[in-house]
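To the wet lab folks,

You asked to see what we're planning to order before we commit. Fair enough. Below is the target structure as tokens, and below that is the sequence we designed to fit it. If anything looks off to you, flag it before the synthesis order goes out.
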């Protein structure tokens, strides 16, 4: 998995990075809130580890903004007993609290408990070779898109991948914000601003000219993917 670690303690950061890399994860580091937000867009992590009180942002607000941007599950690292606030934390995308000091076993248990998002894990089994609609091939396992003519895959956040998959399933069809949000958030209260932001990030990542998009466009108040016929690769 791609994991973003937001921690201001340099010694602890080095330990976490070493241990998680040893387990085969790709690690990105941020020391403060603004940098964490930028890196969540750039690297599209599958999981975010957040110190509850980083120096430039109040921790709960940072969790809210991270979850709104990339929809990745969040594991909080904290000295305080935050388990009592489980309901509030859950609304911010926090799925687990690991209290400091913690053991390597406790940290790895939290990471393994999260895993890939359920919907994308199911999609991974449905089309193991990738879901292809020219010029994009969405890999549900790595949460990345391969573009025809581009050598390097483009990493996506879980919510970006779900949005793209939703559009790829019905190419040439204008989908309303409610239709799209219903598939992405599945019963949770949709955030129109977050949906618009996510669509914009997809355009920036996948379009050669985001200002004049060729494939990912907005029309009649909805979203549309303009391309050819969808198929599952085998």
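Sequence we intend to order:
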């Amino acid at each position: 998995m791609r994991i973003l670690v937001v921690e201001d303690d340099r010694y602890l950061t080095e330990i976490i990075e070493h241990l998680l890399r040893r387990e085969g994860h790709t690690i990105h580091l941020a020391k403060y809130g603004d940098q964490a937000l930028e890196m969540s867009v750039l690297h599209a992590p599958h999981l975010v580890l957040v110190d509850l009180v980083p120096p430039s942002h109040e921790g709960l607000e940072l969790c809210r903004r991270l979850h709104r941007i990339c929809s990745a599950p969040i594991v909080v690292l904290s000295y305080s007993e935050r388990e009592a606030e489980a309901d509030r934390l859950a609304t911010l995308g926090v799925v687990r609290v690991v209290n400091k000091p913690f053991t390597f076993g406790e940290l790895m248990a939290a990471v393994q408990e999260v895993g890939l998002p359920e919907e994308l894990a199911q999609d991974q089994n449905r089309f193991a070779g990738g879901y292809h609609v020219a010029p994009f091939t969405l890999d549900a396992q790595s949460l990345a898109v391969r573009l025809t003519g581009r050598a390097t895959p483009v990493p996506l956040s879980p919510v970006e991948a779900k949005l793209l998959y939703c559009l790829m399933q019905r190419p040439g069809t204008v989908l309303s914000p409610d239709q799209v949000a219903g598939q992405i958030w599945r019963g949770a209260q949709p955030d129109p601003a977050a949906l618009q932001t996510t669509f914009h990030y997809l355009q920036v990542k996948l379009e050669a000219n985001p200002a004049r998009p060729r494939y990912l466009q907005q029309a009649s108040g909805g979203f549309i993917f303009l391309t050819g016929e969808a198929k599952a690769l085998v």
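Structural context that might help your review: Confidence is low (pLDDT under 50) at residues 229-234. The radius of gyration is 18 Å.

Thanks,
Computational group
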